[in-house]
Amino acid sequence: MRQNPERRAALLDAAIEVLAREGSRGLTLRAVDTEAGVPTGTSSNYFANRAQLLVQILHRTRERLTPDPADLTGPFDTKVLLRRLLERMRRERSVHTAMLELRLEATRRPELQEALAGFQGAELEANIAWHLEAGLPGDRQGVVLIYLAMLGLIVDDLTAPGLLDPHSVEGLIDTMVERLLPEHPVD
Q1: Rg, the chain, Cα only
Q2: Is residue 76 classed exposed, middle or buried when 0-12, 13-18 and 19+ CB atoms within 10 A define those classes?
Q3: Mapping DSSP to helix (H, G, I), strand (E, B) and coil, where does residue 11 land?
Q4: Beta-carbon neighbour count of residue 155 at 10 Å?
Q5: Fewer beta carbons under 10 A from the terminal one: N or C of the chain?
Q6: pLDDT for 24-37, tens place per residue?
Q7: pLDDT tens by residue, 57-98
Q8: Cβ contacts of residue 15 below 8 Å, gap of 6+?
């Protein structure tokens, strides 16, 4: 297997675009080569098979969606952080769409489901720990509820444009934070 990190990243970025545009059935090593503008067979030098490519896409999506470290310096405001998250997802629409395709593909591929569950579970735990260590309001369960609520908001925002138009997305985020992560927990 080839180890050129820049070429691998370019191939994975091409794979993300193919997956987002064509869906899982359209994702082939040849389609990745075409999207990346490289000779046919190049992807097979980097990925042993389609299953390995899918797992590598999973990791590349996280690299591309990781926030800028400057956005993670205090003081923190949960509402601002969540708005930045939504902005990042909108900027990287194809990355998030590819993640949705990976989730769907995982329902058909147990090995991908295991990798996805492990990867996302670790990411969720890291996000919970970061939130609590940063001293943001709410508890562990509240952070999980915010995760679930934001996932739904982002999916609707990216896949059904206009669905949330009658509502202020910023207002929805504010309300989620106020209700799910109160400054002083309700007894």
Answers
A1: 18
A2: middle
A3: helix
A4: 16
A5: C
A6: 999 999 999 999 99
A7: 999 999 998 888 887 777 888 999 999 999 999 999 999 999
A8: 27, 32, 35, 43, 53, 56, 57, 60, 98
